[in-house]
Structures are given as structure tokens and as C-alpha cells.
Automatic annotation (TrEMBL):
Membrane-spanning intervals of the chain: 12-32
Coiled coil: none
Name listed for the protein in its UniProt record: ASPIC/UnbV domain-containing protein
Record-linked Pfam families: FG-GAP_3
Length: 1115
């Protein structure tokens, strides 16, 4: 340690200036800054262009989860998060991504932490702008240590950028070896303890070599203050920076490389003051002028004033320095932004508060953020972290995005920090900003920290990546629909390009805009090093003037909408080639790819998805059904969380944003909900939160059914799923629709969180006073209180229950009071049992609890009658309630009109499964469908088959005698035939009536298919495998003959054949000698068009085989 200290120098600071305003009307401009000059802006004539980003990390191959803790977040060290850096490490023109992982400490032994997060930091290579692949092993390890901030720069001046990132008491350098591998080393001799939070690469001493600025945050010694078994802290004060000592920031001066090694050496310098620094921003970068006086803006956290420090002898007291010196408040970072044609500074506050915007030429204390709508009350209420400034819609105006998320743990789970939606604002006319023009799909509430921008797919629209604390990385691809023009430039070598001025001119030499390559980097992170100009509707070729300290180059006749590589040393410029998507292997190009994606390993799946053009809504639905069948129905659940399955579900989810609600997305959403729920993966918790906030009632209620299961199962995402409770409760209490409230309560009832009960009791009292609140809603609230075991509700609940008369309410009161440990005798004194309650008590799902209190139900001789309360529950969205109401509605209907109305009500239920559950329950309780119902169903609903197993024997026989079954659908005939097989009393009757002569079946198959399809339906349900095989092969032969006649799957003949083959997956029994590629192709197209699910093994065998011989199949 002594030797290390000898190399440390303390730098004096200069220019700590107090700002004195000589006049309230004092106006100044940055005379040293080229970017502050009033440049005539382009007359863009551009409409306000909204931007839309689509979160695509999983789909693009980045399945990265930052893990700082696996238990509770214990203090500020777990709250600061990590960064993400954009680096084109192999110089192929496509920006790669380095993501810093969390340190992951969750256990300790004495004073030593001994468990580390296995995720670590990762490097992802961008493959031609289409997808990313994990190439962390290029650094010699499958994973790198976690840490905090990172930075990118060419430290050895070989043309390939290096990576630097910091972890506790260590700075790690990844030296780039010719864009092929990395060499890892520890650099710097900074006295411990130190916490290198943010890293900035900058030529501090202007010697032509890139140095490293290290922002040390604070002295966090968790072990010293441990006082409980969790090894963490119980109070919010442990998340406040002012409660810890500051540290001295450091500068690592680059001494160059030694012989035969590409890794540079560094001399460590320390600043004199002890600060709590989050980022260090060189003044010259903010000014966009390398000749400006040297100095840094030190953005400090609470407990230390942010400040400006100057270096060298040429310190000036310019007003820019005064502004930086004036901004003492805690800040995360500082960015420069052009507002109209003026330079402005964007200050991102630390610990909450509103963003501040100061325009050049105005008083230092004049914050324009509120006046220009660059902030809002909502933004100020959530902590801000990294920020990026870019022209997001290429309209020529700079916009900004701020990473949002609070430091403290979520109230419902201490493992997850409070998340929020990132804030974006687009600049419009007169320098004002508009948040409504910025949208993201889905709007995931994650606790974001580091953020970086880049044009990852080289389409001219800026994308961005966000590293989320204790969460999955977000990659937002810019999918803005705009025809605005643009042009971008990269520059080599990096050291010559720093702060070079790029001036864009028209062909007539009229100046359009001026920018520099280097700009303030976001907190913890590093964005791409490109100069990007959005040009709106400007369409002509342009010229570029590049002005450096010692030279000037002019490049003329540059076409728009291209990315150019500028080689400053050689004075030449080239277009970076863009690879466009090939449609030859797209989903819409053939059935092979449509189905085969389900079976591809992830290293083949992600490239395949990147080549996919936009499928139709019906194609996506078919794909979702097949995925559900193959990965969840026919295989072990262990595969449900595979990267392949999560990638495919994410891809389906992202496809939803292409379809407006008017295009009936409900069925696809329903499939997505089922798929996400079956994965049981915590990677989808934020997606579920989004769905809770956005789904309409039918799909929302299906979602809550699945969330009820998630909450019941302890092993399903135990650390993450509690965050869903607050959003469910918010929707339950705020929605104007009772149906949604009931659905939300159904999910919450399984959460086992008694604290929810307080809100429900207040809600219950409120609704009791509101005459519009239905009994169905009140019953759901009471039921939920019972599941939550909210014992504080006992007294008011007893008072409420003593006044109820309606049977379902009584039943819920009894069950809930029982769960709250009230004795049966006390319950009977509160709730009075009457004869009108008997049928409801008998039908109730908790009838055993009711029997325990009141004894067995009394069977009455009289038929049940429908009372006024039944219609209330018919529209309930809770199965345990509406099933009772429908049952009573059915059995109490006296007239034919009432029976038809009861059936109509039943058919309005969300799914046929619910109908079947009700009818099955009726049969189990001795309440079968009457003869009248059988006749009515057969007469009025001939295309429905759910009721056929519950028809009376007499109804079936009468139906057989009086109806021509050949006129019904194959599915209906198949259901009838199944009853013939399983009902012993019908077996002989059906055989005599429907079974054809087997000899005639072969010789007269075409006639039977045309005139007597019921005979084929009957044989397809036969117990004889020989008979079934004969029918199946005859159908396959008929299909081949139809194809020979030149007919397609749209023809009635082929449609009839395929319907038979699909029933019971009979196509899987077709002999190999009956199969050819044309037949297979036609059948698969038919199945897709119908949305049918195909057998997995059959599909894999024939689809893969057919791919070898045909590539001309079209959906």
C-alpha cells in the first residue's frame, strides 16, 4: 500500500466561482463555444412526429438480468444499479453492447462477502443489425465480474475501443486485441475503500492519450453497521447518501503502452475534496470546444454540493463557468441539449425532484424546464438517473429520455426496487417539449439506472438500452413511422476526432447544422460515438465540413439516409454498408418456418426471428396455439422456462403492438396470457403488470384467473410477483366497472396479504352506502377478506353480515367468518339460515364449510324458483358465483321461452370450458338437463357440441330418427358418434344405423364421402383400429386424387376430407406411402387457415422433411 500511495498526487482546484447577477436582465452567450452560435436552422416543414419504441431485448438475443441482491435490498449500495455501454468492438459498423452485472452479494462470513451473482457482466455482439449473440468468452471468461459504471475509449490508440468498468475497490480494463479478443486487467492504485460509480474517458492533460476519470461515490461499509439476521438495514436512512462519508475522486493518467503489450499503464491522481460523486463531466465536452478552459462539473449526491472545478492556468470567469458553479444541488448527471437554436444544459437531479433546463444567454438561476414542459409533477415524484439526448424522430430537434426508478425497495417485496416507466420528451416548435408524442410498447415499470443510445440496426432511427436494477435489461428499438431524412457519421481515429466540429451544409453552401462527435455521456453508461443529423423533410444532398485544431476537410455530394465512416487521418469518407432483411426465410414465406421456429435451438431461433416479416393476426394466433400445444401440453413443464420459449412468447407479445384494438386482438391476447402464465417466469412480471394496467375486461379477467394461480403457488416467481398486488388493487378500487373489480379481487384473494383488507373494508363501506353497488360485488369483497384472513375486519363484517338476506351473500359471510376463526354458534347468531338458502348452500364451492356451521342442507320437494338476486350474479365474472346463478336460472326456468333465455345466457360466458364445468357440476349434484332442454339445444344450437354428452338417451334416439345427420358439421357428427361408442345402450343401435359395409367402403368411398359422411364419422370413433386405418387411408387417397384434378384446399371436396382427417388427429395415422409433399403442404396450409394445432411429432417429421424438397409454400 505504501508503494501505491507514493504514486498518488493531489491536484489543486481552481475557479470555484460564486455567481453574482449584476442585473435581472443580464443576457450572455457562450463566446467560447462554437455550438452556442446561432446557426440558421433548417426549414424542416415537418409535422410533429410521434415516436414509438418496442422493447425487444429477449427477441434480439439479450436475455440478461441484473442481480444485485437475491434477498432484500439492504442499503444504498444495492440501489445504485449498473450501466450499459455501446461499443463497436470489432469495427464492423454495427454497435455492440456491454452490460454490467450486479455484484450480487447476499451472504457474508464475518466481514467477508462470499456469495456473488452468477450472471456477471456480459458482452453482446451485434450481428449485422439483426440480433445479438453473447461473446463474453472473448474476454477469456464465460462471465465477467459485476460492477457499476462503464466507459468506452481507445486507450492504446490502435483504432479499437477498450472497455473500462468499476466494481467495489477495483477498476477493470478490457483491452481490445484487434477486435477479436480482450485482455482483462486491474488498473489504478486508488486507496481502498473506493466505489468507482461512474467512469468517464477524456484526455485530461491534452497529451493525445485518453485518460480515465473515476467518480467515487461514498464510503459504504455494510458490515460495520449490521444489526439484524438479514444482514441488511430496516430503515430508509440506509438509502440516503448523506448518511455516509464521501470519497476522493481520481484521474488515471494514461502513460502509454509498454513494448510488446497493448495494455496501457496509468498514473493515479486524486482530487483533494471528499465528495459523494455520481458523475464527472468535462467542461470542454459540454461546450463542444476543445480550446475552452479545462475543468469538470462534479455531479454529487445528497450530502455534497455539486460543483465546478477548474484545472490549469488558463481559467476564465466566463458565464458558462459561473452557471456550472451556481448549480450546487445534488445531480446525477449533466447533459447539453439544443433548444431551438440555443445551447442549453439539462441537469438531472439526484434523489427525486424536477429536471432543470438552463438556456444559454439567460440568468444562471433561471430554470426553463417547467415553462418549456421539460418536466412535470409526475416526473418530479420519481427518481431520475441516466439521461440521453438525441433526435429521436429525425425532425432536426433534440429530444431526451430519462431512466426512471426509485432507490428504495418495493413496499410489497424488499427484493425489487420501485420501478417506473422511463420518461421521454420530444422537442416541438418554439423549443417546447411534449411527452404525449413519446410512447413505448410495452410500458414496463422497471427500476432503470444506466441508459445508452445507439442506432443498433443502422436504420437511421436512434434506439436505446437500459440496465435495470435487479431486473432484466431493456432494449428499446425505434419503430417510429416517419419519412424524415437523416445522415450519420462515425470518425476514426478516436483521438483525432474528439471535439472535431461537423458542419452540414447544403449544396449551395448554406449552413444547416453543427455538431461535435463527443458529448456528455449518460450516468453509468456510454452511448454510441456517432454524429447524427435529423433533417426532417430536407431532401437534397449535402456537404460536410470537418474542422479540427490543425486541419479542415470538406466532403461534398453526400446522399442522405446513409451512415458514413470518416477516416480523418487519410481525409476520406465511405458509406457503411447496411444489410437489409431477406424475406426468403420469413414466417410468411412458408409453413416450414412458421412451425419449425418452435423446434429451433436459441442460436438458430433468434437469427430466424430477425428475418421475419410481419405475420398476419390469424397466423400469429395459429402460431401461439401450436406453441402452447408443443411446449406446455405435450412436454414436461421444465421446458416452459427455456430461453427458446421465453423468446418466442416475447416475440408474440411484441407483435401485438402492430394491431389496433379494433382488429379483435382479444383471442391472441388470451393465448399470450395463457403462455406467459404457464412459463411461471419472473422475467414476465413487468409484462403482467403492463397487462393489468392495459387489458380490456374480458382479457383482464382471464389474466386474473391465471394470477390467482400464480399467487397460490409459492414457487412461482416468489420474489417478484408481489409487485403485482398494488397494481391489481389500484385497478380494483379505481375502475368504474364492477366486473373488473370482481376479477381483480379474485386474483388478490390468493395473495395472502392481510394488509390489502384495510382498503377493501373501506371500499365495502363505501359501496354499502352506494345503491349502485351490486350484491355480486359486495359478495366478492367479503369473500376476498376471508381468503386474506384480515382479522381486523371482524367487527364491521359481523355488522354487515347480520343485515344480509340474499343467499350468496349469506354463504360468503358464513365462509369468511369461519376463516376468521369465528365459532359456528356465533356465526349462526349473525347469519340466519332459511329455506330459500338451501339450493345456494348446496351449490356453493365451500358447501362443506356451510354444512359444518348449519348441518346438512335440507332437500325440498318443491321445484326451485328464480328470485331477483339471480340475475345480479349471472353477470358476475367470478365462477363460484355465476355458476350458482346459471344453475338456478336453468333449473328454475318453467316455459320454453325461459329455457331458451337461460341457454342464451349460458352461451355468453367467456369460454366453453366454463359452460362445461357448470353442466358437469349440475350432473354431479343430481340436476341434469331435462328432456325439454335436450330438445331445445338440438333444435336451436345444432352447431354446438358441448352439450351432447349431457343429452338424455331419449333425446338422442329421437334426434337420430328425425334428423339427417349428414347435414351437420364434422365436429358435431364426431361428438354424436362418440356418444354411440361410450353409451352402452346406444352401441348396437348406432352400429346398425350408421356402420357401412366394409367392402363397399373401399369400392364406393367417394359416394359415401359425398352422400353419407355420418358413416365415416362413426367409423372414425370405432374401437377397431383396422376400420379406422381403412377410413384414414381412403381419405388420404381421396385427397391425392383431388390434387391430381388440380383442385386446392379451398375446394369443398378437399375441405371435407381435411375436416375428417383433422378430427382426433387422424392425419397422423396416414400411411407413409399415401403421403407426398403436395398433400402435406396443402393440409398444413388448411390447418393454419383454420387455426388448428397439429401433432408435434407428426409436424416435426413431415414439416422438416418437406422443407428439403420445397420452398414455395405460401401461407
Amino acid at each position: 500500500m505504501k508503494k501505491a500511495l507514493l504514486n498518488i498526487k493531489v491536484l489543486p482546484t481552481f475557479g470555484l466561482i460564486s455567481v453574482i447577477c449584476l442585473s435581472l436582465n443580464l443576457i450572455f452567450d457562450f463566446t467560447f463555444s462554437t455550438t452556442s452560435k446561432s446557426v440558421n436552422p433548417i426549414n424542416f416543414q415537418t409535422e410533429q412526429t410521434p415516436v414509438q419504441f418496442v422493447e425487444s431485448a429477449f427477441v434480439k438475443g439479450i436475455m440478461f438480468k441484473h442481480i444485485q441482491r437475491t434477498e432484500k435490498l439492504s442499503g444504498i449500495k444495492d440501489a445504485m444499479g449498473s450501466g450499459v455501454c455501446v461499443i463497436d468492438f470489432n469495427q464492423d459498423g454495427y454497435e455492440d453492447v456491454f452490460v454490467v452485472g450486479g455484484e450480487g452479494v447476499t451472504r457474508r462470513y464475518g466481514k467477508q462477502h462470499w456469495w456473488n451473482n452468477p450472471t456477471g457482466s456480459k458482452l453482446y455482439q451485434n450481428i449485422a443489425g439483426q440480433y445479438f449473440t453473447d461473446v463474453t468468452t472473448l474476454a477469456g471468461e464465460a462471465q465477467l465480474p459485476g460492477g457499476y459504471g462503464c466507459a468506452v475509449g481507445d486507450l492504446n490508440d490502435d483504432g479499437y475501443p477498450e472497455l473500462v468498468y468499476g466494481k467495489t475497490n477495483e477498476l477493470i480494463l478490457l483491452t481490445n486485441i484487434n477486435g477479436k479478443t480482450f485482455s482483462r486487467s486491474t488498473i489504478g492504485e486508488i486507496p481502498k475503500p473506493y466505489w468507482p460509480l461512474s467512469i468517464t474517458i477524456w484526455d485530461h492533460n491534452l497529451d493525445g492519450k485518453q485518460d480515465i476519470l473515476v467518480a467515487n461515490f461514498l464510503d459504504y461499509e455494510n458490515d460495520i453497521k449490521i444489526g439484524n439476521q438479514e444482514y441488511g438495514y430496516e430503515t430508509d436512512s440506509q438509502f440516503n447518501a448523506e448518511n455516509y462519508n464521501g470519497l476522493r475522486n481520481a484521474i488515471l493518467l494514461n502513460s502509454g503502452t509498454q513494448a510488446n503489450t497493448p495494455t496501457p499503464l496509468f498514473e493515479t491522481l486524486q482530487l483533494s475534496s471528499y465528495d459523494r460523486t455520481l458523475s464527472i463531466i468535462p467542461k470542454q465536452i459540454i461546450a463542444g470546444n476543445k480550446s475552452a478552459s479545462s475543468g469538470y462539473y462534479i455531479a454529487n449526491g445528497s450530502g455534497s454540493n455539486s460543483d465546478f472545478i477548474g484545472f490549469g492556468d488558463n481559467q476564465s470567469s466566463d458565464l458558462f463557468t459561473k452557471l456550472l458553479s451556481f448549480k450546487k444541488s445534488p445531480n446525477v448527471q449533466l447533459s447539453s441539449i439544443k433548444v431551438s437554436d440555443k445551447t442549453a444544459l439539462l441537469f438531472i437531479p439526484f434523489g427525486g425532484g424536477s429536471t432543470q433546463l438552463h438556456l444559454a444567454g439567460e440568468q444562471v438561476n433561471k430554470d426553463r424546464a417547467w415553462q418549456l414542459f421539460a418536466t412535470s409533477d409526475k416526473d418530479a415524484s420519481v427518481q431520475s438517473w441516466g439521461a440521453i439526448v438525441e433526435d429521436l424522430n429525425n425532425d432536426g430537434r433534440e429530444d431526451f429520455i430519462i431512466a426512471k426508478g426509485n432507490a428504495e425497495p418495493h413496499i410489497d417485496t424488499p427484493y425489487v426496487p420501485v420501478g417506473n416507466v422511463n420518461s421521454g420528451r420530444l422537442q416541438i416548435a418554439n423549443g417546447r417539449f411534449e411527452s404525449t408524442l413519446f410512447s413505448q410498447f410495452p410500458t414496463l415499470k422497471r427500476s432503470s439506472r444506466g441508459i445508452a443510445s445507439a442506432d443498433f440496426d443502422n436504420d437511421g432511427k436512434l434506439d436505446y438500452a437500459v440496465n435495470n436494477n435487479n431486473g432484466a435489461l431493456s432494449l428499446y428499438m425505434n419503430r417510429t413511422d416517419t419519412n424524415n431524412n437523416w445522415i450519420s457519421f462515425t470518425c476514426q481515429p478516436i483521438n483525432l476526432c474528439n471535439l472535431v466540429e461537423f458542419t452540414l451544409n447544403t449544396e449551395s453552401n448554406t449552413q444547416l447544422a453543427t455538431k461535435t462527435l463527443v458529448k456528455p455521456q449518460p450516468f453509468l453508461s456510454s452511448s454510441q460515438r456517432r454524429v447524427h443529423f435529423g433533417l426532417g423533410q430536407f431532401e437534397s444532398n449535402v456537404s460536410l465540413k470537418v474542422t479540427g485544431p490543425d486541419n479542415k476537410n470538406i466532403f461534398e455530394n453526400l446522399a442522405l439516409n446513409n451512415i458514413y465512416q470518416l477516416s480523418l487521418a487519410q481525409g476520406k469518407i465511405d458509406i457503411i454498408s447496411k444489410k437489409t432483411r431477406s424475406h426468403t426465410d420469413s414466417i410468411e414465406a412458408g409453413h416450414y418456418n412458421f412451425f419449425a421456429y418452435i423446434d429451433l435451438p436459441v442460436n438458430e431461433l433468434i437469427p430466424a426471428l430477425s428475418q421475419t416479416i410481419d405475420p398476419s393476426l390469424s397466423s400469429l394466433l395459429t402460431f401461439a396455439r401450436q406453441l402452447n400445444h408443443d411446449k406446455f401440453v405435450t412436454v414436461k413443464t421444465s421446458q416452459a422456462r427455456s430461453q427458446e420459449v421465453i423468446t418466442l412468447i416475447s416475440w408474440l407479445f411484441n407483435q401485438m403492438q402492430r394491431f389496433p384494438p379494433s382488429q379483435q386482438r382479444g383471442e391472441l391476447y388470451a393465448m399470450l396470457i395463457e403462455l406467459i402464465s404457464k412459463t411461471e417466469s419472473d422475467l414476465f412480471v413487468e409484462h403482467l403488470d403492463y397487462l393489468i394496467r392495459s387489458l380490456p375486461e374480458p382479457q383482464f379477467c382471464q389474466l386474473t384467473d391465471n394470477l390467482n394461480y400464480w399467487f397460490w403457488e409459492e414457487e412461482v416467481a416468489p420474489l417478484n410477483k408481489p409487485v403485482l398486488k398494488s397494481q391489481l388493487l389500484h385497478r380494483a378500487l379505481r375502475t368504474p366497472f364492477e366486473s373488473e373489480t370482481i376479477c381483480a379481487l379474485h386474483a388478490l384473494s390468493a395473495s395472502e396479504d392481510p394488509t390489502i383488507g384495510a382498503s377493501l373494508m373501506a371500499f365495502l363501506r363505501q359501496d354499502q352506502q352506494n345503491q349502485h353497488a351490486s350484491n355480486a360485488l359486495i359478495a366478492s369483497v367479503i369473500r376476498t377478506i376471508g381468503f386474506l384472513k384480515y382479522r381486523k375486519a371482524l367487527a364491521p363484517l359481523a355488522q354487515i353480515c347480520s343485515n344480509v338476506n340474499e343467499p350468496v351473500l349469506k354463504a360468503e359471510c358464513v365462509v369468511t367468518l369461519t376463516k376468521l376463526d369465528v365459532k359456528p354458534g356465533r356465526i349462526k347468531s349473525i347469519v340466519e339460515r332459511t329455506e330459500n338458502d338451501e339450493l345456494v348452500f348446496r351449490l356453493h364451492t365451500d358447501r362443506l364449510v356451510l354444512q359444518n356451521v348449519f348441518g346438512p342442507t335440507i332437500t325440498t320437494e318443491s321445484d326451485p324458483t328464480k328470485t331477483s338476486w339471480v340475475s345480479t350474479y349471472l353477470n358476475s365474472t367470478l365462477f363460484s358465483h355465476f355458476s350458482i346463478a346459471h344453475t338456478i336460472d336453468i333449473v328454475s326456468a318453467a316455459t320454453e321461452q325461459d329455457k331458451l333465455r337461460a341457454i342464451s345466457q349460458l352461451n355468453r360466458l367467456r369460454s366453453e370450458k366454463d359452460i362445461e364445468r357448470i353442466i358437469l357440476k349440475m350432473n354431479q349434484l343430481g340436476l341434469p338437463l331435462s328432456e325439454d332442454y335436450s330438445q331445445l339445444l338440438l333444435e336451436h344450437y345444432p352447431e354446438q357440441s358441448w352439450f351432447i354428452p349431457y343429452l338424455t338417451l331419449q333425446s338422442l334416439q329421437s334426434f337420430f330418427e328425425n334428423q339427417d345427420l349428414n347435414q351437420y358439421s364434422p365436429a358435431f357428427r364426431s361428438a354424436i358418434s362418440k356418444e354411440c361408442r361410450i353409451r352402452a345402450s346406444l352401441t348396437e343401435y348406432c352400429k346398425q344405423r350408421f356402420e357401412p359395409d366394409m367392402k363397399y367402403l373401399r369400392s364406393g368411398f367417394s359416394a359415401i364421402l359425398e352422400d353419407n359422411p355420418m358413416a365415416l364419422s362413426y367409423l372414425m370413433q370405432s374401437d377397431s383400429k383396422v376400420k379406422k386405418r381403412v377410413v384414414i387411408n381412403q381419405l388420404a387417397r381421396a385427397a391425392r386424387n383431388v390434387h391430381k384434378e388440380g383442385l386446392t384446399e379451398q375446394s369443398p371436396q378437399l375441405t371435407r376430407i381435411f375436416e375428417f382427417l383433422y378430427l382426433q388427429h387422424s392425419y397422423t395415422g396416414v400411411s407413409t406411402n399415401q403421403v407426398n409433399n403436395v398433400w402435406i403442404a396443402s393440409f398444413i396450409r388448411y390447418a393454419q387457415a383454420k387455426g388448428y394445432v397439429l401433432d408435434s411429432q407428426w409436424r416435426q417429421h413431415y414439416v422438416l422433411a418437406s422443407k428439403k424438397t420445397t420452398d414455395s409454400l405460401v401461407l
